[in-house]
Amino acid sequence: MSALRLEGRIIIVSTLFALTLFGLAAMAINLFHVGLPTCLTDIKPFLKGEVITHSPDHFEIHYVSRMWKFEPEEVVVPAGATVDVYLSTPDVTHGMILPGTDVNLMAVPGVVNYARVKFDQPRNYKLICHEFCGTGHERMAAVLRVVDRATFDARKTVPLLPEQTNATYKLLETKDCLTCHSIDGSESIGPTLKGILGRATKLKGGKTFSADEAYLRESIVQPEVKIVDGFDDLMPKPELTDEELNQIMDYLKGLK
Ligand code: CUA
Fold it and tell me: Directed axis angle between helix 242-254 and helix 167-174, to 10°?
């Protein structure tokens, strides 16, 4: 056989081999749902950790890695669930590895990375950062708990807290107020609503006064006019009827 014909055969055999490998990989992804980490460009970097339920056995987790923690810090899913993991970072480069699975992602500013994982058995997973990201690097960990279906379903029937069935609470929720203002005194993006009426309030620029009804009304309707010291001018003007505004004012008076 001439060298030329031999070379031709080698090319044909190696091409067939490469195609077979591609075919097997495609089959593995489609038939067996093997998760391959990919880089997505069609989802915007997010700043909020979140769990989205698509169906009883399909979840999407948006993990935010920041100096120096993961959000959400704990997620519970049922065994059998397929989970789409998205990872974003608002600060520096982090990593995320989920030992016991194929999930091994980089968190790069401006980019969202993705992996899909299916959890068959109940088990506690620990998610850690595997990219040195500063002094708090070794503290960066979160928990992903896979529990059996009955335990998971029992969790979801936890009754609402009494305040969550309140009509004004629901109104505040609908108007997105509670995204930034807590009602339990905890710090958030905006000042807590608990005990807000009569609270000693300091504005940016140093002016101090006691928050009265007129101030609260103004701050709801024109949030940009008076900014509380330590917070930013971030609140959008809510769309409220006079009736809704009065309803909220009554509710705030009762939040002691
Ligand atoms: Cu984040 Cu190391």
Answer: 120
Q: State the pTM of this model.
A: 0.51
Question: Cα 168 vs. chain centroid, distance in angstroms?
Answer: 26
Return d(Cα 188, Cα 72) in angstroms, integer. Answer: 15
Cis, bond preceding 68 (omega within 30 deg of 0): yes
Q: How far is the CA of 244 from the centre of ligand 1 (A)?
A: 45
User: Which residue matches tokens 């006691």?
Assistant: 210
State yes or no: pLDDT of 4 exceeds 80. no
Name residues contacting ligand 1 (CB within 6 A): 65, 68, 94, 129, 131-133, 137, 140
Give the largest Cα separation in the chain, rounded.
Answer: 98
* CA of residue 113 to ligand 1 center, whole Å: 15
Q: Is the dihedral of CA 76, 77, 79, 82 positive or negative?
A: negative
pLDDT in tens, 75-115: 999 999 999 999 999 999 999 999 989 899 999 999 999 99
Closest CA to 50 of 179, 211, 215: 179
Rounded distance between C-alpha atoms, residue 113 and residue 7, angstroms: 42
